[in-house]
Every structure is written in structure tokens, then in C-alpha cells.
Specification:
The chain has 2 helices and 28 strands. The chain is mainly beta. The protein has one domain.
């Protein structure tokens, strides 16, 4: 049943991408092209510009060393917590190290569930709508000149409050926007970038950055040569100048965990201090601004969220399914 739903979704996806789409699924009996992400990447038939669809599965797809320009699309996460996500509630897990190396510039990865770190050896990479759950580095810019990186709409859940986003070397034009970030953000002195509309649930040490429309629920902020405007802190992290607010009671900001999903709890409640408190009157936090967070990290493609078919084959098969797009 889940396989059929995946094939239907893939048929719709194929009309919206401009190259070959390759399927990865390690489930026994799957009709996917490959059983691991690395095998899909390494195949000679996989070329720059192709799309790899990593289907949701309880089985391991391994890790990835990427040296090609690819778009990698997973099924999302927290799929059993939010409504109308996927008929198949299994996430697309990447359960080994991921490396973007020379040749992969221009790649995008979205909708995946990472349980190991992602290392950037090159720039011009988009990391969007993913779930990271580890006790190690989550995104580590390993070399200098890892520039033009977009980190958008991710949910970073660091088990041990380790370095979640780590840019120790010279890196420029880094966009960190509309994420939930638990764990440290650490940059070097030659960093430059934009940190906007995030929820920061730990501490940050940043240089040469613009911090705007963020909500800091915990921790401290050490900022050098930064432009800091229209942020909200539970303490005095941002001060109270330039549109910043300090000592805000966070129970008055978010809807909270009771009755809500893991990522849904960070939506703003009615009357929240953060509503319209950002630059230009936008909402602060991960659901406001230019790139509003999407529940469950659903990729911007159609998804089959309801599927019903008989468990045994008959001459006339009655199939019912519902699908919707997620921009």
C-alpha cells in the first residue's frame, strides 16, 4: 500500500523536475532503483541535475559522500504528529555521515531525517526542511570559503547542546533562517551572514552577522560586529534597543507542547508578544518572515496523505487516495 502511494506521488513529482528522478528505498520487495543513497549517487546513470527521491522507510539508506549536483528529496518528519502529511508515516532517514565535497556545489537536500552530522567542504549548498537529531555536530563547515549556504526551515534537536551549526573558518553569505535550533551556533571571526526568524534554544557566538526577528528561549549571546534588531529574548541577550525586547516570558509567546506536535508547539499563540514584532511588522520566530517554517518539513512537492485499498487483490480494486501540494 505504501509503495503504491509512493509511486503515485513520484508520478506527480516527475512532472515538476527537469531531469531524471531516481528512487531509493531499502525495504524488501521495493521497486525502487536503489537501496542506498550512496548507490544512487554513484551510479553512472546519475548525472548533474538529477533528483533522488529518498522514500520513507524503516530500513537504513546509509550516508552520502556527494560529488555531483543533485536534488535530494525526502518524505519529511514528525509525519505521525501533524495532519495531512504522508500516507506512509516513516521518515527518510540518513543514518550515517553526509559529506558535500567538490563537484556538489549547487546541490539541495530537503525532507530528510539526519541522525549523523552533515559536513560541508564546499559552498552553494541548500539545506532545507530537514530534521537533525544527534549529539554531535549537525552542520559543520569543515573548510574555509564555504560560502553561499542556505540553511532554511530545519528542526535541529541537539541531544547534548553541542555545536549545532559550526562555521569556524572564513565563510561568507550564510543564510540561517526560520529554523528551530537547539544547541550552539558558533562562527569564526571571518564569518559573515544572516541569522533571521529562528527560534534559538541555546547559546550563540557569532561574528559579522545580522540578527533579526529571532526568538531566544534560553542561553546567552556573544556577538561581535553584528547588527542586532527586532529580536526577542527570555533574558537580556538582545537588550531593549533597536526594536529588541528582553526578559520576555516565553509562556506568553508560544502555543506550547500540550496538544501540539513537536514542531507545532512553536507557533505563536493569540496575543503573543512576537506577533508583528519583527522588522517591517512581520512575526518573529520560525513561522514568520520570508521563509515561514513548514510543519513536518514536507518538501514543496505533492504528497499522498491518505491511501486506502483492499489488503487482498480482487478483480476490481477500489482505491481511494488524497493528495495535496506543499509549497
Amino acid at each position: 500500500m505504501f509503495l503504491f502511494a509512493s509511486v503515485i506521488a513520484l508520478a506527480v513529482i516527475s512532472t515538476q523536475v527537469y531531469a531524471t528522478v531516481w528512487r531509493v528505498n531499502a525495504a524488501p520487495g521495493s521497486s525502487a532503483h536503489y537501496t542506498t543513497l550512496q548507490a544512487a549517487h554513484d551510479a553512472s546513470s546519475t548525472v548533474n541535475g538529477d533528483t533522488i527521491y529518498l522514500e520513507g522507510s524503516p530500513f537504513s539508506s546509509g550516508g552520502l559522500t556527494c560529488t555531483k549536483v543533485l536534488t535530494i528529496i525526502g518524505a519529511g518528519y514528525f509525519l505521525d504528529q501533524n495532519p495531512q502529511t504522508q500516507a506512509n508515516p516513516n521518515p527518510s532517514k540518513i543514518d550515517n555521515y553526509t559529506y558535500f565535497q567538490s563537484g556538489s556545489e549547487g546541490s539541495k537536500i530537503m525532507g530528510c531525517h539526519f541522525t549523523y552530522p552533515l559536513y560541508l567542504y564546499v559552498g552553494n549548498i541548500t539545506i532545507e526542511r530537514n530534521y537533525f537529531y544527534t549529539g554531535q555536530y549537525m552542520v559543520y563547515a569543515y573548510y574555509a570559503n564555504v560560502n553561499n549556504v542556505r540553511i532554511i526551515n530545519n528542526y535541529f534537536d541537539n541531544v547534548y547542546y553541542y555545536h549545532t551549526l559550526y562555521f569556524p573558518n572564513a565563510c561568507s553569505n550564510i543564510l540561517i533562517s526560520n529554523n528551530y535550533i537547539k544547541g550552539y551556533i558558533t562562527t569564526g571571526v571571518n564569518f559573515s551572514g544572516f541569522i533571521t526568524n529562528n527560534i534559538l534554544s541555546s547559546s550563540a557566538t557569532v561574528y559579522n552577522a545580522t540578527l533579526t526577528n529571532n526568538i531566544m528561549t534560553d542561553g546567552y549571546l556573544t556577538a561581535s560586529n553584528c547588527n542586532i534588531t527586532y529580536n526577542i529574548g527570555n533574558n537580556t541577550q538582545f537588550g531593549n534597543q533597536n526594536g529588541n525586547q528582553q526578559n520576555v516570558n516565553m509562556t506568553n509567546v508560544f502555543v506550547g507542547a500540550t496538544g501540539n506536535s513537536t514542531d507545532g508547539q512553536w507557533q505563536l499563540k493569540a496575543g503573543s508578544t512576537a506577533i508583528g514584532a519583527g522588522e517591517g511588522g512581520v512575526d518573529c520566530g520560525m513561522y514568520g518572515g520570508a521563509y515561514p517554517y513548514r510543519l513536518s518539513g514536507l518538501p514543496p512537492i505533492p504528497a499522498v496523505y491518505y491511501f486506502n485499498a483492499p489488503s487482498l487483490p480482487t478483480n476490481n480494486i477500489q482505491v481511494s487516495l488524497k493528495a495535496k501540494s506543499h509549497n
